[in-house]
Specification:
single chain, 164 residues, mainly alpha, two-stranded antiparallel ribbon, globular
Length: 164
Amino acid sequence: MNTKEIDKNFIRQISDNQKIIHKICHVYCAMPEDRQDLFQEVLLNAWRSYASFAHLSKFSTWLYKVALNTALMYQRSHRKQEKITWLDLQHIQQKAEEIDTPNEQLQRLYQAIAHLDEHEKSIVILYLDDLNYKEIAEILGITENNVGVKLNRIKQKLKQLLHT
């Protein structure tokens, strides 16, 4: 493939899968400016590593891995900032131009997710996007059994947070 074809393919793939990046940005950043910064960092990291994408997995699986790793690095570098205690759900959007007003139950879920640690958030995002244990394990670099164990613990934690 020549450079122009690679560029077009990357842009098409990102466009088709941009919801993944938006979701991760919204879970890891409360402020709109931070979400925009993280979105740009994810795009930059995806572009830099696109040449090494071996197509052994789906593009979306690879993009989740890049986006989550970028979000974790971004969060660590901004740890001095105030911790997120709730998400500004009025600004959550799947695409920049589409804004859905979440219902109260969804707001409570996102508020509970905001209390999870960074790795737990990663697992929840992937699980809520209907990825199976094998795909989650591949993205996070852990075993399928470990995904199951962690997911059960996270579910219990979320139940406690939602019932307090």
